[in-house]
Amino acid sequence: MTRILLVFFTFLTLFSCSKEEQIPEKTVTKLDFSNSEFYLSLPKQKSFFQKIDKPGSSVSGDLMVVNPAETFQTMDGFGLALTGGSAQVIYRLEPAKRSALLQELFGPNGISVLRVGVGATDLDSAVFSYEDEPGSFSLAKSKPDLIPLLKEILAVNPALKIMASPWSAPIWMKNNYSSKGGYLMEKYYVAYAEYLAKYIQGMAKEGIPIWSLTPQNEPLNPGNNPSMYMSAEMQGNFIIKALGPVFEKQNIQTKIIIYDHNCDHPEYAIELLNVPEVRKYVNGSAFHLYDGEITALSKVKAAHPDKDVYFTEQWTGAKGDFASEFMWHLKNIVLGSVNNHAKAVIEWNLATDPSYGPHTQGGCSECLGALTIGGQEITRNQSYYIIMQATKFVPPGSIRIGIAPPLGVPAAAFKRPDGKLVILILNQGAKKNITLENMNLSLAADSFLTIVL
């Protein structure tokens, strides 16, 4: 009986301690709303970043909790792609108008990451490389517009990070001797690595630092013009045998970022990073979302937590609905990418003419630029507002922090370098109420709300 009583009292003691010792109360920093600012975007009305009074409500809603003590990636920023074609149409603007546009795009609270092609992309007026014949390397074909425009942009924002991506190797290095498809022959691995090194060094001489490089844009899509197939095994061998050693020998500090294609094949990046000889040269991996799920970024991050992930391309189409695309991209690309650890979020082309050009023969004929530039007229399209919605409030150096939003209300939160917190909240559908800590908020129908506090 004594033994039974001892066991019984021991059980009672453990049970009475369990609430305090096994489930301690979680300490969360209280938010200070005393000087908070609210900015509302309503895409159906084409009203963006409008400062409003607190959208308070007398009715409570589902709880949203922000935890500044829980920290994730530090942001490199948000941006677009400056293809040769987009540089061409922007550079035709009158100098005063072009200067004002670049200040708007790249000045304070503007674009902080820019993606460019190494040679032609499919949104250039013609296919070319910087070495169309062996031993003839030259940046001359980008000197009429892309290079001088980049210099003007860097004068506005010297801290801009530039990512470079080749759409194809020079055709004489490929098995099919064509700008479309084919693959890089192994006997030219070192020659191609040296070509990429010459590009980085040549741009540096022009005063244009290349922050990062992907070895191949969309390596599993050989159907574009230009394009080049590069399997994971091929990319790994190229990095091990040529690109990594050449960069190391020439002391090139540009980050190497692998994959640069859709979220439906996260194993491409994971398998490459599993190889020690590859991973020692590689900073991280990049993704698009024409196929797959944005959660692929988290799968790669979980497999290799010491390697960064980036989102590097998503188009808006000529036939797309403005409001629908604005909301979809904010949910999946902006909020989706950052909540799956992306350090940078880059949409597709910065500018096109009214006919969605220039583009190569066989290139994208329905890619809508963030800007449409016809003569001296500038129209701001979906991608402009998608990227500006983020970069106006979340500058480089911001740290993503913990947030637990209600089901069906996508959101993200950041601590900025100035110490302020930013909360981004998307409401798809009817007006609804939420409670953020002890503050009741009313979310307008089909809206995007930004809170700065």
Automatic annotation (TrEMBL):
<protein>
    <submittedName>
        <fullName>Glycoside hydrolase family 30 beta sandwich domain-containing protein</fullName>
    </submittedName>
</protein>
<dbReference type="Pfam" id="PF17189">
    <property type="entry name" value="Glyco_hydro_30C"/>
</dbReference>
<keyword id="KW-0326">Glycosidase</keyword>
<dbReference type="InterPro" id="IPR017853">
    <property type="entry name" value="GH"/>
</dbReference>
<dbReference type="InterPro" id="IPR033452">
    <property type="entry name" value="GH30_C"/>
</dbReference>
<feature type="domain" description="Glycosyl hydrolase family 30 beta sandwich">
    <location>
        <begin position="397"/>
        <end position="451"/>
    </location>
</feature>
<dbReference type="Pfam" id="PF02055">
    <property type="entry name" value="Glyco_hydro_30"/>
</dbReference>
<dbReference type="InterPro" id="IPR001139">
    <property type="entry name" value="Glyco_hydro_30"/>
</dbReference>
<keyword id="KW-0732">Signal</keyword>
<dbReference type="InterPro" id="IPR013780">
    <property type="entry name" value="Glyco_hydro_b"/>
</dbReference>
<dbReference type="GO" id="GO:0016787">
    <property type="term" value="F:hydrolase activity"/>
</dbReference>
<dbReference type="InterPro" id="IPR033453">
    <property type="entry name" value="Glyco_hydro_30_TIM-barrel"/>
</dbReference>
<feature type="domain" description="Glycosyl hydrolase family 30 TIM-barrel">
    <location>
        <begin position="76"/>
        <end position="360"/>
    </location>
</feature>
<keyword id="KW-0378">Hydrolase</keyword>
<comment type="similarity">
    <text>Belongs to the glycosyl hydrolase 30 family.</text>
</comment>
